[in-house]
Amino acid sequence: MKVIFMGTPDYAQKILEGLIANESIEVVAVYTQPDKPVGRKKVLTPPPVKVTAQEHNIAVYQPVKLRDEAVVRELQQIECDFIVVAAYGQILPKEVLEYAPSINLHASILPKYRGASPIQQVLLEGDDITGVTAMLMDEGLDTGDILKIETIEIAPDEMVESLFNRLTQVATTLTLDVLKNYNSLIPQKQDDSLATHCIKITKANGKVEFENAELLYKKYKAYTPWPGIYLESGLKLKEIALESKEGSFKAGEILSIDKESIVVGCTQGSVRIFRVQAPSKKEVSVLDYINGKRFKVADTFA
Question: Is 97 helix (H, G, I), strand (E, B) or coil?
């Protein structure tokens, strides 16, 4: 079975590794996003998928626009049985979709959370269950017919990295299952009336206030380690826990201090803070931080 793989980040890399490891599958080409400058020094860095492909001597294509006619013609010269897509970052044009069955692995239970950040969104929403949807792609954004869905439970304190890793394993197994049993699967249309969408996350999404403690904690779980959560002052909250959903306090008021943490009040509820990082400083325990600021109970934490 010959497969063209399209993907870019770590999530896609793991799925690609699973395909490469399967003896019945030959990955004949990999399409991924162009290399991008990373870090303060703007070092040109290849996507994880490209690194894996090159390690296995698989041809790599990095078109800026997959829709370009020349790019489509080049792809159509590559013999394949399926196109597998996972977090590629581009919508496939009709000519590519018609060339071979194109299967997308989306990290949500579609039609919920179509779009760029389904793993973060499910944590922001506080859902108990999520999963991976294998779908037959069309020209829309995550709107194709569903081939199969695998679900998992979400732990109350689950962080995005843990959920990401578990969903990646689910997606890897589901990909092989769908390819193997493709001819016996019956595609099911999505109910567009139930569709929800999630945004592409930026650094600005990490800004938080001491308003709703439960929402603040959800953002912490969804946005740690990136973009992280931070206050107006730029202080990053590196490790926190939800203390209580109940109670109404002055926003940012230090309610208590113990040997490892402090409790800070929100307009609704309270959070416990363990570690912080001030702008251009190293991460420290919150006790070291408040001692340096001479903060005490009833002061406003910032």
Answer: helix
Asked if the bond preceding 225 is cis, omega within 30° of 0, the reply is: yes
Q: Domain end: 164, 198, 232, which one?
A: 198
Mind listing the pLDDT tens digit for each residue in 207-216?
Answer: 999 999 999 9
Residues in contact with 21: Cβ distance below 8 Å, sequence separation at least 6, in sequence order? none
Cis peptide before 279 (omega within 30 of 0): no
CATH code of the domain in which 283 resides: 3.10.25.10
Pairing of strands 236-244, 197-198: unpaired
Model confidence at 38, in pLDDT bands (50, 70, 90)?
confident
* CA gap 230, 227 in Å, rounded: 9
- Same domain, yes or no: 167 and 38: yes
171: CATH: 3.40.50.170
Q: Which of 176, 198, 220 is the last residue of a domain?
A: 198
Q: Give the domain extent around 34.
A: 2-198
Pairing mode of beta strands 262-265, 270-277: antiparallel
Give the other-Cβ count within 10 Å of 121's Cβ. Answer: 23
Whole-angstrom CA distances from 189 to 135, 137, 140, 147, 260 are: 10, 11, 13, 9, 52
The predicted-structure confidence for 229-275, as pLDDT tens digits, reads as follows: 999 999 999 999 999 999 999 999 999 999 999 999 999 999 999 99
Task: Kindly report the pTM of this predicted structure.
Answer: 0.93
